[in-house]
Design goal:
By secondary structure, the protein is of the alpha+beta class. About 30% of the residues lie in helices and about 25% in strands. It folds into 2 domains: about 5-80, OB fold (Dihydrolipoamide Acetyltransferase, E2P) (Beta Barrel), CATH 2.40.50; about 190-405, Chloramphenicol acetyltransferase-like domain (Chloramphenicol Acetyltransferase).
């Protein structure tokens, strides 16, 4: 009997094992060629594995199990017949036949009292159902009614009153329950990389604040025209990304990475955008941001966000990046110290916009302000460079015309 073995494919140089998330088809079910069988979880994204042939599926791997690349996860019996699985009798039809009820053959007189018997039963507070008729066809005669009326009624013990339910008094006002769940592969990878970034980099964070008045006025003025032309809204992320891309081209140290005893400089800005998903944080890069316009960037962010939340990001879409932007402000964060996304050397943290009093030309005014945080690897980026970079981004945001005119 020819049986095909299905094994975990090679998914990339950096991936040596996967977590078997769940089966999409039952054990023993018939599957078609290229039909999705299961879902696996890698360090970067979830991926479906499909059938290499049609036939009967035989499970091998268990859900939640860690498997090495090349490990067997299923078999397919190609000799199994699809017709055999559909030729079984319908349970509904069998149940319908078995449910037929027998027809009653009793006479209409059965259990019916004669007029005299009915009067006696009524006076004795008895129902015809409590009397057995001895007359023709089971009719209840006067004699039957008299016997039933004179029959001593057995004493029934007095019913005890129903117990009153007393609600239990809680011994504690707090829950003491616990549960254990295995960490997902993505969560384990995130934890491993965050600890690595803390331990293997000389990470520092510098802060500044940016007045969002000009950017908010720009969006309000051109938002309708932007949506009409491009079919998508102009967001803050695209403006910050373009400002960062411009500053990265001017200060290549912030856009570089350390590789052993060498520094890799990039003549392009591939900016990774942190996206929150049900399974964890992912940071797919948007490539060549320095050459994009705002609409191209916004459309790419929308595409990647949808794929990330559906678990459909490919390994190529998760690979690379020279700089990262994370926006904790969408969750209400006022200030934070973001952790570097290795092997990158810097990450910009955006935060919530809050109206605060600031001094403008000697006068106190209420302005929409945002704190910015730049975490950087001090091994490659000097303090003066990090501060200059953040101030440059701040100035571009506060004067977006200079950004649009490439000044």
């Amino acid at each position: 009997m020819p049986v095909i073995e299905l094994k975990i494919p090679n998914l990339g140089e950096s991936i040596s094992s996967v977590t078997f998330s769940k089966w999409l088809k039952p054990d023993g079910s018939m599957v078609a060629l290229d039909e999705p069988l299961c879902e696996i979880e890698t360090e970067k994204a979830n991926q479906e594995l499909s059938a290499d042939s049609a036939g009967k599926l035989i499970w091998v791997a268990r859900e939640g199990e860690d498997l090495a690349v090349g490990a067997l996860f299923a078999r397919i019996d190609t000799d199994a017949s699809v017709a055999s699985s559909s030729s079984q009798s319908s349970p509904a039809a069998v149940a319908t036949v078995a449910a037929e009820a027998p027809t009653s053959t009793g006479s209409y007189a059965t259990g019916t009292p004669s007029p005299a018997a009915a009067k006696i039963l009524s006076e004795a507070s008895l129902t015809p159902a409590a009397v057995t008729g001895t007359g023709r066809d089971g009719r209840i005669t006067k004699e039957d009614a008299v016997k039933a009326a004179n029959k001593p009624v057995p004493e029934t013990p007095a019913q005890a009153p129903a117990p009153v339910s007393i609600p239990e008094v809680a011994t504690s006002a707090y829950s003491r329950q616990e549960r254990r769940e295995k960490m997902s592969r993505m969560r384990r990878t995130i934890a491993k990389r965050l600890v690595s970034a803390k331990n293997n980099t000389a990470m520092l964070t510098t802060f500044n604040e940016v007045d969002m008045t000009a950017v908010m006025a720009l969006r309000e003025k051109y938002q309708d025209a932007f949506v009409k032309k491009y079919g998508i809204k102009l967001g803050f992320m695209s403006i910050f990304a373009k400002a960062c891309a411009k500053a990265l081209m001017e200060m290549p140290e912030v856009n570089a990475a350390i590789d052993g005893e060498e520094i890799i400089y990039h003549d392009y800005a591939d900016i990774s955008i942190a996206i929150s998903t049900p399974t964890g944080l992912v940071v797919p890069p948007i490539r060549n941001v320095e050459s994009m316009n705002f609409a191209q960037f916004e459309l790419k962010v929308k595409e990647l966000s949808a794929k990330a939340r559906d678990g459909k990001l490919s390994l190529d879409e998760m690979t690379g990046g020279t700089f990262t932007i994370t926006n904790g402000g969408i969750f209400g964060s006022l200030m934070s110290t973001p952790i570097i996304n290795e092997p990158q050397s810097a990450i910009l943290g955006m935060h919530a916009i809050k109206e605060r009093p600031i001094v403008v030309d000697g006068e106190i005014k209420i302005r929409p302000m945002m704190y910015l945080a730049l975490s950087y690897d001090h091994r490659i980026i000097d303090g003066s460079t990090s501060v200059t970079f953040l101030v440059r981004v701040k100035n571009l945001i506060e004067d977006p015309t200079s950004l649009l005119l490439d000044l």
